[in-house]
Amino acid sequence: MTPATPDHKPAILALSDGTTVKGRSIGSIGTSGGELCFNTSMSGYQEIFTDPSYYGQLMMMTYPHIGNYGTMSRDDEAYKVMIAGLIVRSFSDDYSNPMADGSLQKYLQRNNVVGISGVDTRMLVRHIRTKGVMNAVISSEILDEKKLVKMAKEWDSMVGLELATKVTRSEAQTVTSDGPYKVAVFDYGIKQNIINNFVARGCTLRIFPAEADLKEVKAWNADGYFFSNGPGDPNASSHYGLPMVEYAKSTGKPLFGICLGHQLMALSEGIPVKKMFVGHRGANQPVQNVETGLVEISTQNHGFAVDEKAIDNSKAEVTHINLNDKTIEGLRFKTFKGMSVQYHPEASPGPHDSSYLFDQFLDMIKEAHS
Amino acid sequence: MPRRDDISKILIIGSGPIVIGQACEFDYSGTQACRSLSEEGYKVVLINSNPATIMTDPMMADSIYLKPLTTASIKEIVEIEKPDAVLPTMGGQTALNLARDLQHEGYWTKMGVKIIGVNMDAVDITEDRQLFRDLMEKIGIEQCKSRTAHSLLDAKEIVEELGGLPIVIRPSFTLGGSGGGIVWSEDQFERKVLRGLEMSPVHQVLIEESIFGWKEFELELLRDDNNNVVIVCPIENLDPMGVHTGDSVTVAPTQTLTDKQYQILRDAAIKMMRSIGDFAGGCNVQFAMEPGSDRLVAIEINPRVSRSSALASKATGYPIAKIATKLAVGYTLDELPNPITQVSSACFEPSIDYVVVKIPRFNFDKFSGIDEELTTQMKAVGEVMSIGRTFPEALNKAWQSLEVGRGGLGADGYSEPDRKLVRERLLKPFWDRTLQIRNAFKFGTSVEELADITKVDPWFLQQIRYMVSLENRTEGQSLDSISKEDFLEVKRAGFSDVQIAWLLSKSGEKVTENEVRDKRISLGLKPSFKMVDTCAAEFPAETPYYYSTYETENESIVTDKKKVMILGSGPNRIGQGIEFDYSCVHAVLAAQEMGFEAIMVNCNPETVSTDFDIANKLYFEPVYWERVLDIFEHEKPEGVILQVGGQTALKLGKRFVESGIKIFGTEFERIDLAEDRGEFSKLLKRLNIPFPEYGTARNGDDAITIADRVGYPVLIRPSYVLGGQGMRIAVREDELRRYVEKILLTHPENDFLIDKYLDKAIEVDVDSVYDGEQLHIAGIMQHIEPAGVHSGDSTAVLPPYSLSKLVIETIENYQEKIAEEMGIIGFLNVQYAVKNEEVFVLEANPRTTRTIPFLAKATERPEAKIGVKVMLGAKLKEFDLESKLKNWAIKEPVFPFDKFPEVKKELGPEMKSTGESIYFMDNFDDEHFRKPYEFKNLYLSK
What we know:
Chain A is of the alpha/beta class. Helices cover 24% and strands 31% of the residues of chain A. Chain B has seven domains: 108 residues, 3-Layer(aba) Sandwich (Rossmann fold), CATH 3.40.50.20; 65 residues, ATP-grasp fold, A domain (Dna Ligase, domain 1, 2-Layer Sandwich), CATH 3.30.1490.20; 138 residues, 2-Layer Sandwich (D-amino Acid Aminotransferase, Chain A, domain 1), CATH 3.30.470; 163 residues, Carbamoyl Phosphate Synthetase, Chain A, domain 4, CATH 1.10.1030.10; 146 residues, Rossmann fold (3-Layer(aba) Sandwich), CATH 3.40.50.20; 64 residues, ATP-grasp fold, A domain (Dna Ligase, domain 1); 173 residues, 2-Layer Sandwich (D-amino Acid Aminotransferase, Chain A, domain 1), CATH 3.30.470.20.
């Protein structure tokens, strides 16, 4: 933390299993809880903090120095910070970036994010890695460890938690471009760079809120349907997500899903989605394209995954796998025109290796169009 | 695709003797390559003329040729061995250039030898600046504006085009950027262009727009046959553009790039690698980025492993050379496991949860008249790497690793320079820039002003300012008043106990390092050891590769096996280089063979000893007392081995003795005795062994009295130095007085010696091992140059070529007597001067020497291992001590004078060579003997 003798107040992080660590407050003064997860990206903190998929989670960055280059509006992935709290090893109050709008500290304060700095994040990562994900609470106002552990224990579990409606748009919105194709986008917490990728390829988008009105969707008569990433347990989003997927399938137009969208598409085919012991969160995950054998270094952010043991080959084939743990990263569906990936081809932050998937989807639309 | 079956025997070309710009990192990569191929069942044929390399050890390859690195030798070997393929990417530019020359001759095709790991078109493109420029333009990668000049006239025209000075000159096809640099003024311009044209083997130079002050970055890439590419590590240079990356302080990962900016670099790097042919292997790409914008220009791409890839390997744990080798023989990245975790894939991009700082090590003190300003031509002779959880911690640890006497980044008792000097030092890039930045902050300079002067990114400056703010806070405290929280914050920022002691002494009583340590430990502040695992702890890893930091969880589990701690030799420098790392690696192997768990401590990223699978446990840490003691107290080994790590390790001996820690081998008091000329002379007198007359002096008057007594010329030397640092020959009184003044400036704490210089004597260097009962002479080497030329700079011949039987017997006799009398257990090196058939002892070194690996290669006896095993209790009778040397072996030194055009070539008692090669000869008609013999007196100087 810079500078020395900071005006940062003491703060405590308490985990639901009773582990507590002391540090210094960053961001706003307050108390905040959620599922404690970690991200191994070495750059792109602002994109991560504003990624709606992280809504309600306490984000621990494994890279120790956070805040180095401040914040700038072009790095926002959504209209606000989505993480519930931030845990870092060494926080930079100072920053260096002539293009930045301001410091990360000011940004966190403006977004009312509670955080803690100066803690042994590596110890906590190893803890979660062996014990599995758990909830935690950060506080810079209640400095009673017992009380905080109790709060962490009582915090809502991510399993069964519906969060997409908390981050989605309140009403449908159109984003235009010069191209001829219309894509209906279901916003479960969509990242800005997904929208940018479509626009760059000449798609005009109609972005519907999570609980979309089917009539409106039908009326727009899209050339393709996109199901976005988003936070929470996908099973808890099925009641509004699946009818849209089913409708999209019925149109005969191509479907594309990312992350939560991928999970919803799988669920619609009866393929179960389960909670992972420890999720994938970082920008260095190797994904192999089963058809080409090529490997993409991908950005990932998921705590749930399609159950690889329950794949029904008549309904979907696996197109992508994670080289580290062989979990399913992508599917192509056999009963309808659709593909989906668990990871994030829009990157931001992370490598651009997978942006070809947007091209593929566009090719599917073109093919269906002609 | 799995491993290739169409090849079975592979030739690896090494990099030859250590030179500036090409050091032991290529032994590290070459060793990994050999092991990587052997474990796949390939037959490995190796050529390298550097005897001090681990890669040329018998266990590393099936056939090893210690031959000069020439196309003729390679042809000779290819004709004998008939390899199916050649891997030229592990031996630096030397190997690539050789392979390229043979390719242009059509030799590889003619002999049916496939080139793997690179393709030669790619080398041509990356080495020819114009071809490279054209290609980059084609694929849409921006470049500095530039053009190639073949003459001074061309060069002048191009400067006009580019809008005048400053400009950058880059000669084509030179090592480490030899002959290149920024040109600021007209008068420099002509000289530098002409020199560049001369130095370039194709006589062309690139004249380039100056992007001085831009941010500089390096990426290390791997590509497989499927065209999968991964970036192993992004590195940011703290020193902006204008300083050769080998001379820059560098930091991993990048600290000041947003993700969008980093991805611009990553995309460009991948595009560049994919554009230069379709080979599978490693690549290094350098970029400059304009501060405050996303404008990126590509500087260069090297299709081979490099110094930076060695650094990236050590920084992340990811063994680039090992994987690059597997890719070269057909594997694809997705088929290989990550060797560090074993549970995840090698096809990924490491994520690290710490900060790595590299600081280059220079040896300007060796060359008077040298221009110390850092430029685009590399001048560093070595480097240190440090790992900390934060940049301040890593930076302080790097300064502790450098062995320039500092306890960290300042605040360690050295006199503080005045404002004027600090300002002068900051106006141009110098080796100690980070220290001068710290000094400037002590004077209250602002980040903005320093950024303006130095162009160093403000983030680094802010971090150094934070370090200074910790200094300032601590200065107001005392050992009793400092709170645990403040103490911890300072330790977390990497400050040593020495620095803290100095700071706490400022406002009151003097506090010692030991008092700080005691207080620290009483507060429960001990370092914890964290693992380098490539993945930021996402996956469990088994690799025993650790660094220290101040955190809550310790990951280094101590076993109940008997252990020995081996101290490495720190950064390479003239006089202490790869030869000591060679012995360190053998010490590890010897200890393991004797049933010990071997714990290695070292901070030199170029070395084999710091490879993740050499020692049982590796602590990548400064070879600095506090850090070493912390590790010792954590591991509690039976004792330590100091005799293989050069002066770096030996220097700590006294403190081990004071702490009651066992030192294996010769008792430390006896080792110390060899440095104490008075005591050592008494010993020689007792043994009735002659030595040049001498005296011990503390000042100029003493020195002159002694010189008058022993007679001129005299040899002046400070104690406790290696490589003859500060040693001079004086023929007159005024000279003597001048040298003494100089020595007192650099070594004020030591007595120094005035020896009678034996003019025109023959020097003989003898390495041996003594086990208390038996002496094993590893080799008697006769120097071609006269005594007075440092042994490291001499051409040494094994066995002697002109010594009489009587002299040799006398030497053997003296050696045994000295070994016995000194109580040697392990290594003993003695240097002799022979004049008129009389043998004088010059000095004794009870440790491994630079010549141990040379002897091991010449005789095919594992001399380093024998010595270490004896130290650990083995007896010489257990070893096969037969030499396999037929005829003669010559050790030929290599000098860096081509890098320092302003320095005259002259040889004296201070060592100047950076490396050596071995040459086997059958008779004295050989030019390798004849030439140095003819010139033996030519360069002798003071």
